[in-house]
């Protein structure tokens, strides 16, 4: 056993997690995805792949991304809201043709590719210390895609629950946004995430209702019959176009207004 390769050990670990999923009621869904790089024989990885993973490990939650921007903000601001998420948030106002709530004291703290585990680690720096009145959390699709390793629905839910509890402890109102529809991931050929996305959104809706949070339902307004996004809303099926963000914006504003009244 001591001579087993890292790839074999990782594969055995992933198999054990898949087996646990069946016991956790996820047997009707496809097993969690995982980045092929994490299961590959290290000798088969090229210098760029290894360098990318090394860079990520040096600052796994990417605290460096917004450290200077946070320091430049006023200590507090009336009506401040942090939009907290992955590439879908990151691109809002940065994708050509999109606007990020002009004239509003809203702060974008999205980082492309991130999972809820990474977001939980930077929550204090990029949300709590900014002293917002509310936070809009949009996350989970990269967990389902296995960007930082296989993640069960329970694992994703635990991270979202922890972020919500941290916010509540600091009197920050919480808006939990549904994961956007996706019937496929361009970077995970062959994987079909729609069922897991629906299951995670169902949990978020129930959790928000049970805990006095606001559930922001992007999914219902955007999903097609396959549980994905039509090209006019997301050219690659995942990342919104300007038209997609235009659908999302009034829904976000309504959810924020509801949260701030609580």
Overview of this protein structure:
The chain has one domain: SGNH hydrolase (Rossmann fold, 3-Layer(aba) Sandwich), CATH 3.40.50. The chain has 262 residues and is of the alpha/beta class. Strands 2-1-3-4-5 form a five-stranded parallel sheet, sandwiched between helices. The longest helix has 20 residues. The termini are far apart. The protein is built from twelve helices and five strands.
Short note summarizing the structure:
The protein has 262 residues and is an alpha/beta fold. It has helices spanning 6-23, 36-39, 47-58, 64-72, 87-90, 116-121, 123-126, 141-144, 153-169, 194-211, 218-222, 242-261; strands at 81-85, 106-110, 134-138, 173-177, 214-216. Strands 2-1-3-4-5 form a five-stranded parallel β-sheet, with helices on both faces.
